[in-house]
Write a structure and sequence with these properties.
The chain is built from 14 helices and six strands. By secondary structure, it is an alpha+beta fold. Strands 1-4-3-2 form a four-stranded antiparallel β-sheet. A hairpin with a 4-residue loop joins strand 2 (about 80) and strand 3. Helix 4 (about 70-80) packs across helix 10 (about 225-235), helix 5 (about 110-115) crosses helix 9 (about 200-215) and helix 6 packs across helix 8 (about 185-195).
Length: about 325
């Protein structure tokens, strides 16, 4: 849609946030990461930084779009989701030729989000995987915590911990609890390391939809991504330096802090991190049969699988299928 064809909205439906200015967003949420050679070369995170910046989430992690609070706040104040065309509608405010404020309609769907963030996935890619696959991969990367407990980034060697830190702070929908990696964050990292397909775009879009549906409890979610979507559609919005959103973006000191201390859990780089041409194992395996490195069988024998929004129970599904076949052919 060309900007000249934008619909001017005379009256928009708005939501008043329950918290005061600045209380409904978090400085550590949706920040950008430093993965360039200047900050990572000859450091413990060098290989991870190369892997992430060359991955399909590279732009989403590193884009340094300046965020203007009034524009993203106007977006979330007026955002609505339409199931008929599976799109998010909202408004942006700009000055007309007479200097008066006018609200112009914007809309985007998951395909638009995918294009702007350059995520490189497709509608046919999955958004769920088995918990067994994700946690098997976690153990292979050196996770030292309890297999049925919280999957915290501090339970990894420094290089892997840095990878978790980047993905959690940039892509997670939450405004806090950054030490813990949620199920879909685990899925994203697992798919990247194993070179598997995963629909990151749809996951992000789903959380945007949810934020719209909570009414007055919504918050300023994904401000950097929203600003990127706004910039994609509107090139001449007024922008004031006093309106810049002050996020806690990554700096060189962040890398030093995340990786400080002796690395007693050093783990070598594996799969696609080590080999860009790596081919994922078949089915829900996290290593090839002929792989000679340590295996995770003992750790995984303790796993008690559960179903979540982004995980399915692989073993229970197999058991139900076995029981059904036994019943049919007895």
């Amino acid at each position: 849609m060309m900007q000249s064809d934008r619909t001017t909205i005379r009256s928009i439906s708005t939501v008043t946030f329950s918290s005061g200015r600045g209380k409904d967003w978090d400085k550590g949420h949706n920040v950008y990461c430093l993965l360039d050679t200047t900050n990572t070369e000859n450091t413990v995170v060098e290989e991870i930084a190369i892997f992430l910046r060359e991955s399909r989430i590279g732009k989403a992690l590193t884009d340094k779009t300046i965020i203007y609070e009034s524009h993203v706040r106007t977006f979330w104040n007026s955002a609505r989701y339409e199931e008929s065309d599976k799109s998010i509608y909202s408004a942006v405010r700009k000055k007309d030729e007479n200097g008066k404020d006018v609200d112009l309609e914007m809309k985007f769907n998951v395909g638009d989000l995918r294009r702007v963030l350059e995520l490189g996935d497709t509608d046919n890619d999955p958004t769920i995987m088995s918990e067994r696959l994700a946690k098997g991969m976690w153990c292979r990367m050196g996770f030292t915590g309890h297999i049925n407990g919280k999957m915290t980034k501090t339970s990894f060697s420094n290089a892997y911990k840095f990878m978790m830190h980047c993905v959690v702070h940039s892509l997670s929908h939450r405004k806090g609890a950054y030490d813990e990696t949620s199920d879909y964050i685990m899925n994203i990292i697992t798919s990247l390391v194993l070179n598997r397909h995963y629909n990151v775009s749809q996951v992000i879009f789903e959380y945007m939809k949810e934020n719209i549906k909570v009414g007055n409890d919504r918050y300023i979610m994904y401000p950097r991504f929203i600003m990127m979507m706004i910039n994609d559609q509107f090139k001449d919005l007024s922008k004031n330096n006093s309106d810049i959103m002050d996020l806690r973006n990554m700096i060189s000191e962040t890398i030093a802090r995340v990786t400080k201390g002796d690395d007693e859990r050093t783990k070598r780089m594996i799969c696609r991190i080590n080999n860009p041409a790596y081919v994922a194992p078949e089915n829900d395996k996290w290593r090839h049969e002929n792989n000679s490195s340590d295996n995770e069988d003992e750790r995984m024998s303790e796993l008690s699988e559960k179903k979540t929004r982004w995980w399915f129970e692989k073993e229970k599904g197999k058991e139900r299928q076995r029981q059904l076949l036994q019943f049919l052919f007895q």
